[in-house]
Amino acid sequence: MSTPTEVASRYRLERRLGAGGMSTVFLGLDSVLERRVAVKLLAEHLAEDETFVARFRREALAAARLQHPNVVQVYDSGRDADSGRHYIVMEYVDGPSCADLLRDRGALSVETTVSYLRDACRGLDYAHRAGVVHRDVKPGNLLVAEESDTVKLADFGIAKAAEQSRVTQIGSVLGTAAYLSPEQARGEDAGPASDIYSLGVCGYQFLTGRLPFEYSSLTELALKQQEAEVDPVVDLRPEVPRELDLALRACLARYASSRYSSALEAADALEAGLHGELTDATQALATGATRVADDGAGADATVPLTASRTQATRAVRTDEAPRRAPPPRRNAAPAPTRAPQ
Question: Given this model, what pLDDT does residue 215 score?
Fold first, then answer.
């Protein structure tokens, strides 16, 4: 199959915007509504995987139900009759991805980092309340609209479709490995807390210009996620408020139950941290997020996130994550209509 110049007799492809292992994205023109759109063409080899195609269509429908200022809107999807290519038509975001910004600028300012994370948290909170988990949060999927300097989350849906089909090969995990949560790396199902972890990796990279863990193989990364501690951001960039560092590392907690209970809670904590304040949730997590082996205390003892690095290196693996009582829920906007699963 060749790349068409027009899709569905409606979307004229103008130029390529980017490409990945599963798709290529083009800038297109909707000839009916006379507006710019982004057209994603799935890779040709995926059309042969009937399981993937069926799941992808279902997930595309779920993503199309999400209408939020911080989520890239899905307009249309289907199969082009002439070329046979499967496509998704999305809102065109005129601006770079956060991956582009990291490549061109290196670390971002503290204020910009929190602003972008807050936007992403709002989009994630909306999606989570609709029953949709992103599963592949990374800088390349955080698009910055230049006119408003607002972040929009892209690529809802394709991750779950690939996870549950033959596209994901045995022994591998979907997505950029460094941004996957520990539970995803173990092959477990992703939940809202997994997206919060992935966003925490993004925030750490925005502030420091590096990933939380350096690794040369997926095995080494998985081991570090389970046993090593993240270097405090303030050790690498002293001007970052300590409270923001604690909030960010709470997003990066090893266990899902030790992270923020919602993306909205994470957004509040990051915003407070920017201003040198700790939310109740951050304080609770900072005093009980890390398990250590302490003389005479047993494996259930805890050490604050503010503990020394010597203490942190004594972290031990356990079969059960530490638990905390959920904080009082913040009043939130009504949840959107639940998307189909």
Answer: 87
